[in-house]
Amino acid sequence: MTPITTQDYSIQFNSDCYSALSNYIQNNTFSNIFILVDSNTSDLCLPKLLAQLNTELTIEVIEIEAGEQHKTIETCLGVWETLSELGADRKSLMLNLGGGVVTDLGGFVACTYQRGIKFINIPTTLLSMVDASIGGKNGVDLGAIKNQIGIIKTPNMVLVDTDYLSTLSSREMRSGLAEMLKHGLIHNELYYSKLSRLSNLTLEDLDQLIYDSILIKKDIVEQDPTEQNLRKSLNFGHTLGHAIESFYLNHKSKALLHGEAIAIGMILETYLSNKLLDFPEDKMQLIKENTIKVYGKIDIPEADYLPIIELMKFDKKNIKGNINFVLLNSIGDPKINQTTTNDLIIKSFKFYSN
Length: 354
Description:
Dehydroquinate synthase-like, alpha domain
């Protein structure tokens, strides 16, 4: 696949990834290399990367615990201390090998260690390939509140090797698919339709859809890198989805993956779009049916509605205390900075549950 060149960095694919990485290392004067992994990618993905790394530089591996609950400042502190103990300096290179937690946290650590060292994201999950590793958002959670601490700084390169997807469970693959479905809903109805026909997709189709999804995000980010206007559209489904994810993060029996929570958020926010912007009712029903077909339906008791709504006050899109949503005029036509009432949000939960 042809590399995607952004304003600041390149995104390399599959067989071209490792030659591009070798060239990058050879053409820069790095002192050493640090690879950040989690307890999953250490076993499942690191051996392949190490076999492909053609360098005489010292390579150190730093491992963190897997899971959103470890995407914290405390984890960063451990990584910063380890970097210091192992002699990392401003000429060190950091490779973030993992899913969204590793690329988000690893990017934040790299951007802040000695005021910034170069880093490359090597996403190993579908979610991180099409979303987390692209666009320069780096950061960690503050308690149960998602991504409250962070910085926008693009990586120096992204390597997308879809062979790593073979290490994922079907649940993790579905989680990543949610962000791709979102890209279709905010940008391109034809793309959304292709993704909705999952049973007909081949592995080759998936590679192309991943490529197309990255292009959609890349184009939006380049027009609005610091999320003042258009980039906010990438948060469709996330205002409610992040609140749902945060609320259930500490409920081990009902903890949701990011994409699972966003899938619910997209159904709820499509309902709000119908009520507030006249989004077509037939398409609202179709999105609900398509989404539940893939993700099933979880039980959200009415007692949870208000605590979830309360968490939305921490959403980063909020202005002067107003909870701002991204809603849809139609598929491919998002509208940012929309507000609504708690009563209508509660009705959206009931629409999802019934």
